[in-house]
Write a structure and sequence with these properties.
Number of strands of chain A: 7
Distance between the termini of chain A: 28 Å
Oligomer: heterodimer
Helix content of chain A: under 10%
Structural class of chain A: mainly beta
Radius of gyration of chain A: 15 Å
Distance between the termini of chain B: 44 Å
CATH class of the largest domain in chain B: Mainly Beta
CATH superfamily of the largest domain in chain B: SoxY domain
Largest sheet of chain A: 4 strands, antiparallel
Number of helices of chain A: 0
Strand content of chain B: 35-45%
CATH architecture of chain A: Sandwich
Chain lengths: 103, 154
């Protein structure tokens, strides 16, 4: 099971800023382990966020995104108390969804 | 409970064995719609083309790329882009000298600010590009980022 995402969503006036910290190895497939074997690629390929069922961000990531990746974006229309839901899917087909309340 | 646990373990083991041999695990589909061609591109022009560009991206001062001049740790380089170009719907980041040049591609729906940031790995000092799609045109901004400790596994 993957680690929960840390999602912080803060509303300032009409703008809500969302910061997401995802727990994921994001192996590029370039690295070699101590024995010299290439560690296979294992990385998030898509990540998306919704608010009240409306998509507010979606992204495709490649192996060059950092381990324990970070993402920040902002959108209009939400208020404190609303929820933001973030979902990712990696190249193994594993997925994870977490949500946060806008403060 | 035992049987479920056993099946889960043997499933996980099968994935681990498949992954260790370098073969894709049988049931792993990856994310639907992932643009494989784009993530295999080697430079800005190829990435833009794989994203749908029919002409070369144009440099634009209205696309502001935030990237450090010097990245101490190539494993974690914070980059961001703010697009002040009307109708921006996509913002992507390309690291010229990385083995996989396209790092990330963000789709910005209406109502979302055209301003995104994320952390990327850089294997070595390189030009970093922000690439924005606005309407059916593509624009870019570029900055040279020097990396003191490479972050692609070197």
């Amino acid at each position: 099971m993957s680690d929960p995402m840390r999602i912080r969503a803060q509303a300032q006036g009409d703008k809500t800023t969302v910061r997401v910290l995802v727990g994921h190895e994001m192996e590029s497939g370039q690295r070699r382990d101590a024995a010299g074997k290439t560690v296979p690629a294992w990385f998030i390929q898509s990540i998306s966020a919704t608010w009240n069922g409306k998509p507010v961000m979606s992204a495709q990531w490649g192996p060059a995104v950092s381990k324990n990746p970070f993402m920040q974006f902002s959108f209009k229309g939400a208020k404190a108390g609303d929820k933001v839901i973030v979902t990712w899917i990696d190249n193994r087909g594993e997925k994870r969804t977490d949500e946060a309340v806008i403060t | 409970m035992e049987r479920r646990d056993f099946l889960h373990r043997s499933g996980a083991t099968a994935v681990a064995i498949a992954a260790a041999t370098g073969l894709p695990a049988a049931h792993a589909q990856g994310a639907p719609g992932w643009n494989k061609a784009a993530f295999e591109s080697k430079n800005l022009a190829e990435a833009a083309k794989a994203m749908g560009a029919t002409s070369a991206p144009i440099e634009s001062k209205d696309l502001v790329l935030q990237a450090p001049e010097i990245a101490e740790n190539g494993n974690v380089v914070r980059i961001g882009a703010q697009s002040n170009i009307a109708n921006t719907t996509q913002i992507a980041f390309v690291v010229e000298k990385n083995p996989s040049a396209l790092a990330a591609m963000f789709d910005v729906p209406a109502g979302t600010d055209t301003n995104v940031s994320t952390n990327i790995k850089m294997g070595q000092s390189s030009n970093v590009y922000a690439l924005a799609k606005a309407g059916d045109k593509y624009y870019y901004a570029v900055k040279e980022v020097k990396v003191t400790l490479g972050g692609c596994g070197g």
